[in-house]
Amino acid sequence: MTRPVDSGVIFIARVALAILFLWSGVMKLLGYAGFVGYLQAKGVPFVQVGAPLAVAVEVLGGLFLVLGFKIRPLGIFMAVYCIVTAVLGHDFWNVSDAAMQRDMLIHFWKNVAMAGGFLLLFVTGAGGLSIDGARTPRGGRGLR
Q: Which chain regions cross the lipid bilayer (predicted)?
C-alpha cells in the first residue's frame, strides 16, 4: 500500500461485494426448491451439483470477502464464477419478452462488472484490514 487510506477503501469494496453474495446465497438457501427450479428451467446442466455449489460459493465467498481471507485466489475464482453465472443464468439472447430481456441484460452486465471488481481484488490483494493483511510481514508491501 502506498497510502493509509487504501486499506480502508479496499475493505469497503470487499464488504460491498460480500453483501450481494451473502444475501444472494442465503436467499438461494431459503428458497432452495425455487432456485433449483429456476436452474432447471434455464437448462443448466448438473443442477443437483450446481445448486448446492452455487450456494456454498456465494456464502463462503462472501464470508472470505468480509474477513479478507485468501483474496487473491478468491478474486480469480469469483471472477470466473460471475462470468459463468452471467452466461448460464442471465442469457438475455434467449429471451423474447422485451421487459424480461432488458432485465436479463442488466443482470448479465452486472455480473461482468462484478467480475471486474474481483479482478481488481486479485491485483490489489485484501489490504491491511484483513486476515491476509495481518499475515503479511511488516516489511512487505501489504498487498497480500
A: 7-26, 46-67, 74-93, 113-134
Alpha-carbon gap, residue 136 to 5, rounded angstroms:
18
Q: How far is the C-alpha of 97 from the C-alpha of 115, rounded, in Å?
A: 27
Q: CB count, 10 Å around CB of 31?
A: 12
- Amino acid present at 117: G
Dihedral sign of CA atoms 98, 82, 66, 58 in order? positive
At 76-130, the pLDDT tens digits run 999 999 999 999 889 999 999 999 999 999 999 999 999 999 999 999 999 999 9
Instruction: Calculate the dihedral angle through the C-alpha atoms of 67, 118, 12, 63, rounding to the nearest 10 degrees.
Output: -30
Residue 105, in any domain of the structure? yes
Q: Tell me the three cell numbers of residue 104.
A: 436479463
SS3 129: coil
Distance CA 68, CA 126 (A): 5
Name the one residue in this structure whose C-alpha cell is 422485451. 98
More confident residue, 137 or 134: 134
Radius of gyration of the chain (CA): 17
Is residue 143 one of the residues assigned to a domain?
Answer: no
Domain hosting residue 37, numbered range: 5-135
